[in-house]
Amino acid sequence: MYPINMRLDNVPCAVLGGGSIALQKIQSLLAASADVTIIAPDVTKDIEQLITEGALHWRRKKYEIGDEKGFTLLICATDDMTANQLAAEEAQRQHILVNVCDTPALCTFTLPAVVRQGELTITISTNGASPALARWLRIALTKEYGPVYGHWLTRLSLLRKEVQQTFLSSRDRQNFWQHALTDEVMELVRQEKIEEAEEQIRHAISSFRSQS
Ligand SMILES: C[C@@]1(CC(=O)O)C2=NC(=C\c3[nH]c(c(CCC(=O)O)c3CC(=O)O)Cc3[nH]c(c(CC(=O)O)c3CCC(=O)O)/C=C3\N/C(=C\2)[C@@H](CCC(=O)O)[C@]3(C)CC(=O)O)/[C@H]1CCC(=O)O
Ligand SMILES: NC(=O)c1ccc[n+]([C@@H]2O[C@H](COP(=O)([O-])OP(=O)(O)OC[C@H]3O[C@@H](n4cnc5c(N)ncnc54)[C@H](O)[C@@H]3O)[C@@H](O)[C@H]2O)c1
Fold first, then answer.
1. pTM here?
2. Which atom of ligand 1 is nearest to the CA of 25?
3. Reaction(s) catalyzed by this protein (predicted)?
4. Is 83's C-beta closer than 6 angstroms to any atom of ligand 2?
């Protein structure tokens, strides 16, 4: 498995099936601003609501060969294994990225469990060995890495810009961060003492500057 993070803004994506599993996949695609089409003869109330709101397109039909054309990414979440398999094989033939929610062998990509805090994304995969462990780890990591890590990341991103202007070589910047982002600083973050953590980084910038 080769992990990547994909931009899906306005990218045409299709979901086959209109049940509870399809809904989960639709929600994560919409959160990524994808252009989502659902192909299914019937859908749940929640999906119907999204369609009414204009959040996604609906082709009200069973899957037929050719329906996958024009999509960059396809998720098969019907309860009809034959339809899932047919669609996945067609998609693979056309180099369309495909996930079949309960058949890893037919997937060109699988979905990880996801923890998000602002710009921070932590994903967990078990190579399909135990999705239940992925879920358990998501819950544990969400407790461990709460909203403060998202706030800290926002601060770090601004500090990083300052560091880029202060230290001109990439090697110096790498060296700086390896020394500045210490266990001590991250312990302050864990205790939600963001101001103090930032102060430590600023102190390190001054020290590094006077050394060079
Ligand atoms: C991470 C997560 C993301 C998501 O779904 O978006 C995800 N499954 C989740 C949960 C979950 N799924 C299942 C259970 C019940 C326990 C169990 O069966 O073990 C639970 C646990 C629960 O829900 O409590 C059933 C299940 N899943 C797959 C099979 C087929 C098979 O293994 O052969 C079966 C049996 C179906 C059956 O028996 O009919 C296959 C896949 N599931 C994957 C992803 C991919 C590999 C991920 C990895 O590398 O670990 C892969 C390969 C394909 C894919 O879906 O991409 C999501 C975490 C949600 C969260 O964050 O809470
Ligand atoms: N629900 C779960 O917790 C769960 C967990 C793991 C795996 N799964 C598997 O995921 C699949 C989907 O689960 P679900 O709970 O969303 O199912 P569901 O029965 O609620 O929904 C199935 C959907 O597929 C649509 N469909 C059926 N044949 C189709 C076709 N030929 N073309 C297009 N759409 C078609 C139906 O109209 C329906 O909207 C099932 O195979 C299930 O075994 C479900």
1. 0.93
2. 6
3. precorrin-2 + NAD(+) = sirohydrochlorin + NADH + 2 H(+)
4. yes
